[in-house]
Amino acid sequence: MPRETQPPARGREASSGRGGRVDRTFVLGVDGGQTGSRIALAALDGTVLATARGGPADHLHEPGGLERFNALLDSVAALIDRAGAMERLACAWFGLTGHADEARPLVERRLPVPHLVVEHDMEIAVAGASLGRPAVVVLAGTGTVARATGGGASVTVGAWGYLGDEAGGFDVARMAVVAACRAIDGRGPATALVDALPRACSARSIRDLLSHFYGQRLARHEFARAARVVAELAAHGDPACQDILRQAGETLAGYAAAAYERLEQQVGRAAVESLPCYLTGGVGQAGPILVQSMEQALGRRLGRPVRVRPAELPPLGGALLKAIERVAGQADGAAVARLKDGLRSG
User: Fold this and answer.
1) HSE on the CB side for 150, CA within 13 Å?
2) What's the rounded Cα separation, in Å, for the pair 283 and 192?
3) 3-state secondary structure of 1
4) pTM for the full predicted model
5) How far is CA 257 from the centre of its chain?
6) Contact at 8 Å (CB) between 103 and 131?
7) What DSSP line would sit under 77-100, residue for residue?
8) What digits encode the pLDDT tens for the residues 12-52?
């Protein structure tokens, strides 16, 4: 997992890369997800100056939602303060799960900056994955959504929330619990999930984990983190976990295929056939079993081979990229490379 990086010492400045000129302007990016949030400060040349993690930014109208969002804003303010960046902060770009419009007034009160954008996290995911170029992007985080853009049009598939989003973190964790229950009952193969899932959720057993969830002592975002256990055990050869990832890959292929097909209905096949497909989000990083399953299922559905590519930048990088371009115009390849390197190490 990426580690938190320290902000630059007060007064430290980054070169803009334009003739060696020192640029004193910063931008802020926030990727606010249902399971957790990432925050970063960057210079206009793409140099990542500081990163931090915050809590979940889920729906404000849910119990505890407002308190969790204010805690995220506290984390944002703390990072800015440690860097001494407030006076030089030109743009803040928030990508949030749920209802971004409801969150904007709260952000405005806490963060008076010249340029402020608060939008759905799918927008920063698309910007990061494809660098804003026409493409099909599948975001598999705690929830799931796909966006196809090309020929002057775009379509969105998914984003129904945790009851409707398949193959996101919540759904993968749910499938893991089902696999563990089947193993305990003798209805399915033995799996290390029986012991690993309770540990991941601070429970004594699968039954105890379920009791915590049903009794609302285990929040959805905490439960969704158990999806990471599936990827870890699959990499070590657990057949049940590998099967879950194959199922998730096939399901994500359905999201991508629907996005391709619906966009084709609007702009024609010629504008769609060459569009690349990108996969981003936490579940999207579950490993080659999921990606291979997704590629195979997508190829069968579309009748042609499709390579599923990793995102050029993570969603947080998309937020920073959009902020830089809002302030300074089109970012060059060197700026993108600095963002990629800084977010990989930060």
Assistant:
1) 25
2) 19
3) coil
4) 0.86
5) 20
6) no
7) HHHHHHHT-GGGEEEEEEEESS-H
8) 444 444 444 445 799 999 998 777 889 999 999 999 999 99
